[in-house]
């Protein structure tokens, strides 16, 4: 599956389903974003089982603010609706591939347990 552009209205639905979703937050004026785009597209073609989404931060400013996107490109990874990665900066293809493999290899029962423990400790 190639990358797909999503807007604020589709964001929650896109990330909340089962499986893995990577989201690239970008802007048209951003040089590093333009350099990262073909890398992101190439890696997306290698992983048809993963959703590769793109959010234009200029067109979706409220969503970007909610997610505290302060630098672009920012890449987020979600698995089964849980954010498991967030980092600003463009990744080289090899590192992006490694990230996809790491997210695929996560023990989601352990991740859910850690999320529950974090929520309990905050209450």
UniProtKB/TrEMBL annotation:
* Residue ranges occupied by any Thioredoxin domain in the UniProt entry: 1-105
Against SUPFAM superfamilies, the record matches this protein to:
Thioredoxin-like (SSF52833)
- Disulphide linkage map: 30-33
Keyword entries, A-Z: Disulfide bond, Electron transport, Redox-active center, Transport
Kindly identify the residues recorded as the active site: 30, 33
The feature of type site (Contributes to redox potential value) is located at 31-32
Is Electron transport tagged as a keyword? yes
Any one GO MF annotation of this record: protein-disulfide reductase activity
Which residues are tagged with the site Deprotonates C-terminal active site Cys? 24
Identify the InterPro entries for this entry: Thioredoxin, Thioredoxin-like_sf, Thioredoxin_CS, Thioredoxin_domain
Q: Which domain of life is it from?
A: Bacteria
Cellular component terms (Gene Ontology): cytosol
Q: Which family does it belong to?
A: Belongs to the thioredoxin family.
Q: Which PANTHER family match?
A: GEO12009P1, THIOREDOXIN 2
- Stated name of the protein: Thioredoxin
Q: Which organism is it from?
A: Bogoriella caseilytica
């Amino acid at each position: 599956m190639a990358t797909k552009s999503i807007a604020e209205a589709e964001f929650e639905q896109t990330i909340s389903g089962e499986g893995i979703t990577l989201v690239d937050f970008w802007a048209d004026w951003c040089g590093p974003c333009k350099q990262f785009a073909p890398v992101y597209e190439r890696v997306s073609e290698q992983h048809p089982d993963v959703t590769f989404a793109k959010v234009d931060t200029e067109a979706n400013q409220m969503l970007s603010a909610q997610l505290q996107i302060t630098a672009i490109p920012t890449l987020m990874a979600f698995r089964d609706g849980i954010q498991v990665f967030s980092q600003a900066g463009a990744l080289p293809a090899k590192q992006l591939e490694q990230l996809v493999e790491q997210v695929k290899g996560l023990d989601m029962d352990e991740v859910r347990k850690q999320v529950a423990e974090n929520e309990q400790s905050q209450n």
